[in-house]
Structure formats: C-alpha cells, structure tokens
Design brief:
- With 251 residues, the protein is mainly β.
- The protein folds into 2 domains: 146 residues, Immunoglobulin-like (Sandwich), CATH 2.60.40.1260; 74 residues, Immunoglobulin-like.
- Helix content is 2%, strand content 41%.
- It is built from 1 helix and 20 strands.
- A hairpin with a 4-residue loop joins strand 16 and strand 17.
- The longest helix has 6 residues.
- It starts with 8 loop residues before the first strand and ends with a strand.
C-alpha cells in the first residue's frame, strides 16, 4: 500500500553519466515570498547542481513535469547562461513565461504534488527525476548535501547555494521584512530585518552600486544621489545565507 505523507519526496533516478553529472538539487513549488525573479515575480523554481569536476552546459536538455511527455520543453542552446561550472548551481524558473529569458521554462510546478524529469538532449536518457507530494508555502525541498538520496524540507531555501537543513529564518520571518516606499524618491526603509545582515544593491546591468551592513530591526537607506530607474536588492546574513531579494524603483 502506498503511504501518503505530506512532504514525501521520492527520488526516481539519478544518472551520473559521463555526458552529464548534474542533479536536481532543490525546488520550490509554492513560492510566495522566498525568491523573486528579474521581473519581481515569485514563481516556481528548480535548482540544478553540477557536483562534477568539469563545466556542464544544459542547453538542449529537456525538462518536463510529465513522464509521458519527456520532450515537453527543451532548454535553449547556445546561451552562456545555461553553463554550470564545477560545484555550481543554476536556477530555472518554472513560470510558463519563456519570453522572460532562456532560464524560464514552459512548465509550472503543482504545489499539491507532481514530478520533475530532466533528460539529455536526445530526449530519452534520464539525467535525474523527483516525484513530490503536497508542498508548503516558501518551504523548498532539496537533497541533503546537494547530491544525496535523502530529501528534506528547507524553511530557509538556498537557491544558488548549498542546501542547509536548519535555519533561524522561517518563512514567517522572511514575510515580515518590508521594503518601502516603492517606488521611492530619496530614502528606502528596510523594516523587520531579523539579524545583522548585508545589503547589496545592483543596477539592471548587474553592477553593484551600493553595499552596506544592516542592524537588526529598522534601517534607512539614503539613495538621493542615485539616478532614476530600477534596482535589484539582495539581503544576506554575514554568513552569506540568503534572506530576501527584490526590485525597487527610484522615481
């Protein structure tokens, strides 16, 4: 008899072939406030990890949420963003919005439970797969130590970084962090920062334009000297643990 347990994750297969050594290392099927994409949308995401000694390019690979349709979506070829360096991680957005870029897939994840399959460019050789049951908001699932066969819940998702089982930063604490006003004119307020943190602000070209440490509580950021436009902020702990990410606009 099949046991039905919330958060049960069944690993179907892992294939460390000579052609590909990547694995599905983490995913978030109910992204309420854990991580925003470049358009500030909180969409489903899938993290791919390359534990091998050489770079792997997943351009041309197929990814699907239906085992009966292995070629449901092919990741575009010929783009450097699909390359994963040794020990590196890559986030794929399962948002059915491919016009947003190469890393956006024409599939979505079902938070009530479904499956993910990753195939080599032949559309037949299974690289990795996972079947999962019902998920919780802002709680990701991932492999213990990134590549192990044991899967576990992460109340502090770690997209683009090594998986960590325990965290002080619960989804509730993350939701309480407020950034306002947005759009802003001169000053930004960061409220309910849970601990000493580091803020990094980038322009839309990816250049770091400001960085500073934050104290727990409420912090004010004077950006009166900045040009009008859109900026991306990222808040991490001093131990480099991701907390929050988003966009702000200066009028």
């Amino acid at each position: 008899m099949r046991k039905t347990l919330a958060f049960l994750v069944i690993v179907l297969a892992v294939n460390f072939s000579l052609q590909s050594q990547v694995v599905i290392s983490e995913f978030l099927a109910r992204n309420d406030a854990a991580l925003a994409d470049e358009s500030n949308d909180y969409d489903d995401w899938i993290e791919i990890h390359n534990p091998g000694p050489e770079m792997v390019d997943i351009g041309g690979y197929y990814i699907t949420d239906d085992k009966n349709e292995p070629k449901k979506f092919q990741i575009a070829k010929g783009d450097a963003s699909t390359q994963i360096y040794p020990g590196g991680f890559l986030i794929l957005w399962a948002d059915e919005d491919t016009k947003e870029g190469v890393l956006h897939l024409d599939i979505k994840l079902n938070g009530d439970g479904e499956e993910i399959y990753l195939y080599l460019p032949d559309g037949e050789t299974l690289v990795d797969s996972v079947v999962f049951d019902e998920q919780e908001d802002d709680v990701s699932y991932g492999r213990e130590k990134n590549t192990g066969n044991k899967w576990m819940a992460f109340t502090d998702p770690t997209p683009g970084a090594s998986n960590k089982a325990a965290s002080r930063f619960t989804p509730e604490k993350i939701r309480r962090i407020k950034v306002y006003p947005n759009p802003f004119e001169q000053e930004l307020v960061f409220k309910n920062i849970p601990d000493e943190c580091v803020l990094q602000l980038r322009n839309m070209n990816g250049q770091v334009v400001h960085a500073q440490s934050f104290d727990a509580g409420k912090n004010y950021l004077d950006l009166s000297g900045f040009d009008s436009g859109t900026y991306v902020f990222r808040i991490r702990t001093k131990q480099n643990q991701f907390i929050k990410h988003g966009k702000v606009v200066r009028k």
